[in-house]
Design goal:
With about 210 residues, the chain is mostly beta strands. It has two helices and eight strands. The radius of gyration is 16 Å and the shape is globular.
Length: about 210
């Protein structure tokens, strides 16, 4: 097992998600709000075993079921202690939280993305809540390898009930967390978070 991020870092990440999910940002966002979805709680679903990969930064992310193929940028901590989020631009990208394991390492690797990007419309994780158990997610790594994950659960939760331990807690194998906002909007902010849980199922080029 790996040492999980301290609760301060986990709380900081949560704070960033509460404030930085691609809302209006003063740009007059007109994209419709995501539909809240009740989904099964996080559960261990057996997937094909694959050996963990060495540490290598993710550079791309594919989600075939959603037609997503995006570059991945590094995200750290902002000066106020919250986790950075990808910039709100027309060239929306996902971002990997670099204080989490890289995809394929043992532990929960965390990738964030916007649901909407202000006046630019849909964000890269706009349809994240549509994923189902067994759907594939592929993380392309800087060293030329690729880590393929199988979705085990999709949860839409109220931001006030964000499952910090489930997202950041210790796990025995390589796992992935994709996180965005969802549900109805309260002014400029979405009320919920959409969280995809996935486990490593295969590796390529290792």
């Amino acid at each position: 097992m790996i040492r999980r991020p301290g609760r301060v870092l986990a709380t900081a990440a949560l704070a960033a998600l509460l404030a930085g999910c691609g809302g209006a940002q003063g740009d007059g966002d007109t994209a419709p709000s995501a539909t809240a979805k009740n989904t099964a709680p996080h559960a261990r679903t057996p997937v094909e075993s694959a050996r963990p990969l060495a540490r290598s930064v993710p550079v791309g992310l594919r989600i075939p079921a959603l037609g997503v193929d995006t570059p991945v940028m590094d995200l750290g901590l902002a000066s106020d202690g919250t986790v950075e989020v990808p910039p709100v631009t027309d060239d929306d990208r996902a971002g990997w939280y670099r204080h989490s394991p890289t995809p394929g390492q043992v532990g929960p690797s965390v990738i964030l993305g916007h649901v909407t990007v202000g006046r630019y419309g849909d964000g890269v994780f706009r349809h994240l809540a549509r994923l189902h158990r067994g759907d594939r997610i592929e993380a392309r790594l800087r060293n030329g390898t690729a880590a393929e994950f199988a979705v085990t659960a999709v949860r839409t939760v109220a931001k006030a009930d964000f499952p910090t331990d489930d997202v950041y807690g210790d796990v025995a194998g390589p796992e992935l967390r994709l996180i965005t906002c969802g549900g109805p909007r309260d002014g400029e902010e979405y009320r919920d978070n959409v969280i995809v849980f996935a486990e490593l199922s295969a590796t390529q080029g290792a």
